[in-house]
Amino acid sequence: MSNATDWGPLGAVRKQSPLLRAAADRYRETTPFENLTVGVSAPMTPHTGLFLDVLATGGAKVLATGEAGSTHAAVVEWLQERPRITPLAATEHSRHERRDARREVLAAEPDLIADDGANLLSLVHDEFPDVAEGLRGACEQTTGGITRLQAMDNQDVLACPVYDVNGTPMKQHFDNVHGTAESSLSAITSLTDTLLAGSVAVVAGYGHCGRGIARKLRALGARTVVTEVDPRKALEALADGHDVRPMAEAVTEAEFVITATGRYQVLRDEHVDALADGTVIASIGSAVEVDREALASHATDSDQPRPGTTRYRFPDGREVTLLTDGKVVNLTAPNSTGNPGEVMDTTFAMMIRGLVALADGVSLEPGLHPVPDDLDRAVAHEKLAAMAVEIDDIPDKQRAFHSEWAFHDSSAVE
Ligand code: NAI
């Protein structure tokens, strides 16, 4: 990697990323990706720029695509100057151009894929079956991508092994719960200039992201209402002290509706007439959760009072504001960079460890696989060490006691 003065738009992120800096130092020596091509799909943010640079430092030829709304032009420009990296993302890319860019990545016949949303993996199986057959493997970092890959695995169409990086404890408990909540709430407040304290905030979905958002909202003084389709998640939300209601009821008094499900049309036509006047709507899960067409078709008028906001006026005088056209708010709001650098450091460190294992030729059948727990633990230990936080070891006697399956005299432990 270059010296610190060359870091341009990645400078601040590099400081927040001790694990990626350490990976660069390690892999500069061992070059695990020598002679390999890595295809990447990821929001083209400064964090991703650093991730791509570490792959290239480890010897990879890297081709990377991203979505127009989350692409940072300065990062693309910086990457264009880097050896072995071809960024194929642009802020003005149309849907068509974005698909062409993904095709260009796959036409380079990558050996490995680092995916986000299964964008490259679904296309490679659809249009480039020979390239799919030749892949050593892939890593996927998002919940939405894993949902698609699970469907592919259920139909036995995956031609290579894929590590479910999203399913690791480090990703779910750190990135999804904390990173997404903080970056999403800060994007929402900076777009709207509205106070969360004392507001009624509806969170759709009480999975990892929704749970983090609801908890942080409440910590800020909001009155939280959760909507769910899973009865166990609904009970968990109640036990955590949130109100739980169906969406049709919740929207009637919502000041904020934040969707965190990754699912199609969670806020849809049937809810529009019930939305309270002044509601702010945002998605953090995916671009399909809010039915934007339904809002537009009920409205008599709309405008963009501030960048990243669309205000719809309905015939009865109500107004609601949709943020970033219903696209993922913490990645597409003006000046947003997605999750904070500290969590992207661990998520990308995990992606790199998975890619290194696949590059090394780890023996795995085609299909979706959990990341081995020792890799997840190694990342956690490394992060703690970087934070200078120590934890206890498990003493031999304790380990032996709990590995014993034969009958214990319980009086010994009473
Ligand atoms: P998860 O699977 O842990 O949680 C999703 C929850 O939504 C589940 O509890 C499910 O029962 C619930 N749900 C499904 N349909 C629903 C409906 N119609 N109404 C209400 N609840 C419903 O997933 P996780 O990890 O929380 O991710 C959620 C979404 O956020 C995914 O699309 C993921 O890709 C995305 N994500 C976004 C990030 C960002 O930075 N913006 C970062 C991490 C994930």
- The low-confidence parts are 1-5
Q: Remind me, CATH topology of the largest domain?
A: Rossmann fold
N-end to C-end Cα span:
58 Å
Strand line-up in the sheet with most strands? 9-8-7-10-11-14-13-12
Number of domains: 2
> What small-molecule ligands were found?
1,4-dihydronicotinamide adenine dinucleotide
The CATH class name of the largest domain reads Alpha Beta
The overall average pLDDT, rounded, is 94
Radius of gyration: 23 Å
Major sheet details? 8 strands, mixed
CATH architecture assignment of the largest domain: 3-Layer(aba) Sandwich
CATH superfamily of the largest domain: Adenosylhomocysteinase-like
DSSP E strands, number: 15
Strand portion, in percent?
5-15%
Outline, from the CA principal axes? Answer: globular
> How many distinct helices?
18
Question: Could you name the key traits of this structure?
Answer:
414 residues; alpha/beta; Rossmann fold; seven-stranded parallel beta sheet; binds 1,4-dihydronicotinamide adenine dinucleotide
Walk me through this protein's architecture.
With about 425 residues, the chain is of the alpha/beta class. The chain folds into two domains: about 220 residues, Rossmann fold; about 160 residues, NAD(P)-binding Rossmann-like Domain (Rossmann fold). It is about 45% helix and about 15% strand. The chain contains 18 helices and 15 strands. The chain has an eight-stranded mixed sheet with strand order 9-8-7-10-11-14-13-12, with helices on both faces. Strands 3-2-1-4-5-6-15 form a seven-stranded parallel sheet, sandwiched between helices. The longest helix has 24 residues. The protein binds 1,4-dihydronicotinamide adenine dinucleotide (NAI). 1,4-dihydronicotinamide adenine dinucleotide binds next to helix 8, helix 9, helix 10 and helix 15. It comes from Halovenus rubra. One of its GO terms (biological process) is one-carbon metabolic process.
